[in-house]
Amino acid sequence: MRYTYGQSETAAQRLKQIARVFDPHSSAFIKSQVDLPVKVAIDLGCGPGFTTRMLARASRAANTCGLDASSEFLREAKRRFSDYEFIQHDLTRTPFPVNGGVMYCRFLLSHLRQPVSLMNRWSRLLPTGGLLLAEELEAIDTGIEVFQRYLTINQGLVASQGARLYVGAELARGKFDARVRLNQPFILPVTNSDAATMFFSNTTSIWEKEEFVLGKVPAAELREISQALKAMIDDGDRRTGIIWKMRRILIQA
C-alpha cells in the first residue's frame, strides 16, 4: 500500500491533529459497541500509534496491537506508546501476524483498493462473535472556497493512486459476508482552524512532491491555497464552516 500523505514527522503531526479532533467521537463509538471483555484489540493502519492508544482505552482490551506497513510510523509509535505492541504488516495480505477479537480502522480504506473485499477478508480472521469496526470518510461539505479547492485537488490525488477519498459511499452499499450490525452515517462539524491545520501540512509537504498535483495545479494557485489555510490557522477561526460525514460500519463474525 502507498501512503498518500507520507510517513514523515510532518505526516505524524498531522495524524496527531486528526486524533485530537476525532478521537473523542471514535472512542464513544467503540465504547457503545464493544460490550464484552476483549483479550486482544487490533488497530489496522495504526500509523504513529494515536488510534492504538484510543482503541486500547475505548475497548478496554487486555492487550492492544497496532499493524502498519510503515517502518517509520512504527518506530514513532513504539517510541510514543510503549504499553502496546506494534508489528509491521501489509494489511492487504491475510492472515495477520496476530489474532484479535476486535479490529478497528479509521481513514484507512480510502488509501486501499477493493475496500469491501478487504473488509470481508479481515472479518474472516475474527473469532465467533468478534467485531470489525470501521470509520471512513463519506463526504466533506463546506461552502468555504479554499476548503473546496483543497478537497478537489486531494480527491484527484487519491484517485490518481487508484483509491477513493470518499470511500464511505462504497462501504455504505457494500455486500458483506458476515453480519452487519451497524451501517450508518455520522456527522461531525469541525472548526475552520482545525480543518485548516489538518489540510495545511499537505500543501507544504506532499503537494510539493506529487507529480499529479504539480502537473494539474499552477504553482501560484498552490501557494495561494497554502497561504489562505495558514491565515485561517493564525486567526484561530473557531467557526464551523466544514462538516465531515463519516460512514460507520460494524461487522460481527
Gross geometry:
globular
The main β sheet shows up as: 7 strands, mixed
- Relative helix content: 40-55%
Task: Specify the number of helices.
Answer: 9
Mean pLDDT: 93
| CA(first)-CA(last) distance | 26 Å
Radius of gyration: 18 Å
Structural class: alpha/beta
CATH class of the domain at 9-140 and 163-189 and 243-252: Alpha Beta
| Beta strands, count | 7
**Sheet with most strands: strand arrangement:** 3-2-1-4-5-7-6
Known CATH architecture of the domain at 9-140 and 163-189 and 243-252:
3-Layer(aba) Sandwich
Beta-strand content: 15-25%
Low-confidence runs of at least 5 consecutive residues = none
CATH third-level topology of the domain at 9-140 and 163-189 and 243-252: Rossmann fold
Task: Write structural notes for this entry.
This protein has a 7-stranded mixed sheet, with helices on both faces. It is an alpha/beta fold. It contains 9 helices and 7 strands. α4 links the parallel β4 and β5. The chain has a domain at 9-140 and 163-189 and 243-252: 3-Layer(aba) Sandwich (Rossmann fold), CATH 3.40.50. Helix content is 43%, strand content 22%.
Brief rundown of the structure:
The chain is α/β, with parallel strands linked by helices. It has helices at 9-33, 50-59, 71-80, 115-123, 145-160, 168-172, 192-203, 211-216, 219-235, and strands at 40-44, 63-68, 85-88, 102-106, 131-142, 179-190, 242-252.
